[in-house]
């Protein structure tokens, strides 16, 4: 490796550390004010995590996707970032579990997450099937029919989650009233602080794909592998910070809702990327290896659902059985992508 390459890597890595610092600081405050907004507006932490936090923390994937399918013309990076971020978000769930002693994190979470997680599995399977069939599916102009399914499923899913969570909130309104923690903070102040911190997270996160692509070029690895592993990890940094910060203040449902909600929004972004990729249906022009990530995300989400339903009372070690299986699937996904790169 030449000296210029080493200097380039150091430069990009320094920029990455700076971006990490900003996102860590503002992301922790974003979690706090998201929790306050949930309390003030009478909304569940699950719904706030699925919609409000997930939309903000998934914007780096949106920016990366748009740039990848327009002027950069690297559709594999776009899809790799989307599916890689979904897989990495589920890995974050396992890391989140390690933060709690005694009970698994899935046993502390609300059952409502099963709804958003199930919708995620549906979208992952449709993605994998579309990748397998490719040009055997009749396109709608320059877009694939799967794009309409992605967009409709996302909006219908958001509505379903909202109705379900509202119903649950009304059922337990007395208990919720007792749990109020932020009576001294006004709704206006919470929204303003949320917007300010969200703005800095978004602006900083926009540069993460550029940093990730710069480091990717310096390493010389393939687009599918880099897009799914490294760039996905950098664009998922907001999810990491916001999720762990939410858990730290005791907002478990906010944290888990952010992860499952980000996965739903990521597949919605894939639909947007397909619309902007005017050469034709996006999934016609990408490597079939991405099927591995789509199926891995489905399997990992299925394991998370099992944990949410089974609700184990304690861990055998420092990590719950479902989190351990999730980590195993993630490692298998990485090894297969590296082998087939």
UniProtKB/TrEMBL annotation:
GO terms for cellular component: plasma membrane. GO terms for molecular function: calcium channel activity; calcium, potassium:sodium antiporter activity. One of its GO terms (biological process) is intracellular calcium ion homeostasis. Keywords: Membrane, Transmembrane, Transmembrane helix. Residues 13-155, 199-338 form the Sodium/calcium exchanger membrane region domain. It is a multi-pass membrane protein. The chain crosses the membrane at residues 6-26, 47-71, 77-96, 108-133, 145-164, 191-212, 224-247, 259-278, 290-310, 317-340. Its main location: membrane. The keyword Aminoacyl-tRNA synthetase does not apply. It is found in: Membrane. InterPro entries: K/Na/Ca-exchanger, NaCa_Exmemb, NCX_ion-bd_dom_sf. The keyword Membrane applies. This is Cation transporter.
């Amino acid at each position: 490796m030449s000296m210029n390459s080493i200097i380039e890597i150091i430069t990009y890595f320094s920029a990455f550390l700076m971006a990490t610092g900003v996102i860590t600081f503002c992301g922790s405050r974003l979690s706090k004010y998201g929790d306050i907004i949930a309390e003030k507006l009478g909304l569940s932490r699950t719904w706030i995590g699925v919609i409000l936090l997930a939309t903000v923390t998934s914007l780096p994937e949106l920016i990366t996707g748009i740039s990848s399918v327009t002027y950069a013309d690297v559709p594999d990076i776009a899809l790799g970032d989307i599916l890689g971020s979904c897989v990495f978000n589920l890995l974050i769930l396992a890391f989140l579990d390690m933060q709690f002693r005694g009970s698994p994190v899935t046993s502390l979470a609300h059952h409502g997450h099963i709804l958003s997680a199930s919708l995620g599995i549906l979208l992952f399977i449709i993605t994998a099937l579309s990748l397998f069939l490719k040009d055997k599916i009749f396109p709608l102009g320059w877009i694939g029919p799967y794009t309409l399914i992605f967009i409709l499923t996302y909006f219908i899913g958001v509505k379903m989650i909202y109705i379900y969570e509202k119903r649950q909130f009304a059922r337990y309104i007395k208990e919720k009233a007792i749990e109020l923690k932020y009576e001294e903070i006004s709704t206006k102040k919470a929204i303003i602080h949320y917007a300010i911190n969200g703005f800095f997270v978004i602006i900083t996160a926009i540069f993460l794909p550029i940093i990730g692509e710069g480091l990717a070029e310096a390493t010389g690895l393939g687009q599918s592998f880099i897009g799914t592993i490294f760039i996905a990890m950098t664009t998922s940094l907001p999810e990491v910070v916001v999720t762990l910060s939410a858990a730290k203040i005791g907002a478990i449902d906010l944290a888990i809702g952010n992860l499952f909600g980000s996965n739903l929004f990521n597949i919605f972004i894939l639909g947007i990327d397909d619309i902007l990729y005017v050469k034709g249906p996006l999934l016609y022009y990408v490597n079939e290896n991405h099927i591995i990530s789509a199926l891995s995300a489905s399997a990992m989400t299925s394991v998370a659902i099992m944990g949410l339903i089974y609700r184990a009372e304690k861990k055998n070690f420092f990590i719950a059985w479902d989190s351990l299986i999730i980590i195993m699937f993630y490692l298998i996904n990485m090894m297969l992508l590296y082998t087939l790169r």
